[in-house]
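Hi V.,

Quick status before I head out on leave. The structure for the redesign project is tokenized and pasted below; the design run finished overnight.
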């Protein structure tokens, strides 16, 4: 009995000493180079490396929760997730709960992709009525007026990769896609079959949100993300997977 009680006591002490994991949300719609999902967990990619490095520097084990994008906000509100990365404030304007935002960490550029090369940049506002490829539960603020008036209709897929596969298969003429994911997808296609960027839809500064909770080291997380950004670590992670420097917001020519 003493041996059993001693073992239980040691297990109890070990549990108390082990830091609680830092729980990250992972959208099941992500694709490379943002994240590779295998067996319902991320294994590589920009966001995987970023979150894993963050947890390591904070001194917590990383725990990844793969969820449908529509369920992530509710999971955070219920306290099941501590940190959500790769998010813009415009995407969560009705966010409920007490959260802190990190500094902007990267820029996402959504482009209009097509199977054919346009003779000039496509003017999205003048496209004839048609369906275009989109990702389920993704918000495209720049296109909302065109969806609302029926000029464009969403053809949703569960992931960005499925959107591109449908575009290649001819399901629609155009698709809205993350530029990095498009570039990665094109690497697996023969040069004469690669998808073309025919317009820039929008650009968003993205960061992380952290749930304000006494058990979550919020300020340490925010300071670490700032340090990762300022030191160039995040830029190095992006360059590792894309071969490019981190994007910056495009400033339109005033002339």
């Amino acid at each position: 009995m003493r041996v059993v009680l001693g073992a239980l006591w040691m297990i109890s002490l070990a549990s108390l000493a082990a830091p609680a994991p830092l729980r990250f949300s992972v959208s099941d719609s992500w694709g490379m180079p943002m994240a590779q999902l295998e067996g319902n967990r991320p294994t590589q990619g920009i966001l995987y490396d970023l979150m894993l490095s963050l947890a390591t520097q904070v001194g917590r084990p990383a725990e990844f929760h793969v969820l449908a994008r529509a369920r992530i906000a509710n999971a955070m509100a219920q306290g099941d997730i501590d940190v959500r990365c790769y998010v813009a404030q415009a995407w969560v304007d009705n966010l409920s709960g007490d959260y802190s935002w990190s500094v902007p960490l990267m820029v996402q550029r959504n482009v209009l992709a097509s199977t054919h090369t346009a003779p000039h940049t496509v003017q999205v506002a003048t496209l004839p009525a048609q369906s275009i490829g989109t990702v389920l539960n993704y918000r495209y603020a720049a296109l909302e007026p065109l969806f609302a008036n029926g000029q464009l209709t969403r053809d949703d897929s569960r992931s960005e990769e499925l959107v591109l596969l449908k575009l290649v298969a001819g399901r629609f003429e155009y698709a809205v896609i993350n530029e990095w994911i498009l570039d990665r997808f094109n690497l697996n296609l023969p040069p004469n079959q690669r998808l073309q960027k025919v317009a820039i839809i929008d650009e968003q500064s993205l960061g992380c949100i952290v749930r304000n909770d006494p058990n979550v080291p919020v300020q340490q997380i925010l300071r670490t993300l700032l340090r990762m950004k300022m030191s160039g670590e995040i830029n190095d992670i992006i360059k590792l997977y894309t071969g490019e420097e981190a994007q910056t917001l495009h400033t339109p020519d005033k002339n």
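Above is the designed sequence. The helical segments are 2-17, 46-58, 69-77, 144-148, 160-168, 179-186, 218-231, 233-242.

G. will cover questions while I'm gone.

Best,
W.
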